[in-house]
Amino acid sequence: MKDYEKVIISSGFNKSDLSLLSLEESDEVIKKIRIIFSEVSPENEELSGDRSCFEYSKLLSDIYYSISNDSLCYIYTDDFKYCGIFLVNARKAIEYALNIAKKDYQNTCFLLDKSFVYSITINYYDKEHSDDPNTFDIQRRKIN
C-alpha cells in the first residue's frame, strides 16, 4: 500500500488530495465500469513520451477543459486489486495521470469520472518497447 500511495504522491498529488476507497467500495466501482462502459467504443491516441503534459493529448485536454474545478474522479493503477481506488480532484488527476503511467511502468493508469461519464486508460511503453518505444497509449470511453 505504501508503494502504491508513493507512486501517486510522487506524480504530483499531496497526501491530503487523496481519499482512499475500501476494497469493497473499489470492487463496486469496477463492477459499474464493466456494465456502463461495456458497449461504448473507445477513442485511441498515442502520444510521445517526451510530451508528458496532458495538454498535448486531445483526449485528455478535451475532458480537462470541459469539467469544473470541483469535479471528482477515481484514479488507480492495476494495484487497485490489493490497495483500492483513490477519489481525487478530476483536474489534478488529468494533470498527473501521465506521470503516474510513466512512474508505475508496467501498470495501467485509470481515470474514471465519479459520475461515470468518462473512463480513461493510459499505458506507457518505455524505450525498450519493440513496437512503440517511449509512447503513451491513451484510450478514452465517454458517454455522450
Question: What is the secondary structure topology, with strand pairs?
Answer:
Elements: H1 2-10, E1 19-20, H2 23-36, E2 43-48, H3 58-64, E3 72-77, H4 80-83, E4 86-89, H5 90-103, E5 109-113, E6 118-125, E7 135-142
Structural class: alpha+beta
Unreliable residue stretches: none
Distance between the first and last residues' Cα = 35 Å
The value of Rg in angstroms is 14 Å
Strand count: 7
**Biggest β-sheet, characterized?**
7 strands, antiparallel
Number of H- or I-type helical stretches: 5
Mean pLDDT: 92
Q: Order the strands across the largest sheet as they lie in space.
A: 1-4-3-5-6-7-2
Question: Structurally, how many domains make up the residues?
Answer: 1
* Apparent shape: globular
What does this protein look like?
The protein is of the alpha+beta class and 144 residues long. The protein has one domain. The protein is built from 5 helices and 7 strands. The chain has helices at 2-10, 23-36, 58-64, 80-83, 90-103; strands at 19-20, 43-48, 72-77, 86-89, 109-113, 118-125, 135-142. Strands 1-4-3-5-6-7-2 form a 7-stranded antiparallel β-sheet, with helices on one face. A hairpin with a 4-residue loop joins strand 5 (109-113) and strand 6 (118-125). The longest helix has 14 residues, at 23-36. The radius of gyration is 14 Å and the shape is globular. The mean pLDDT is 92.
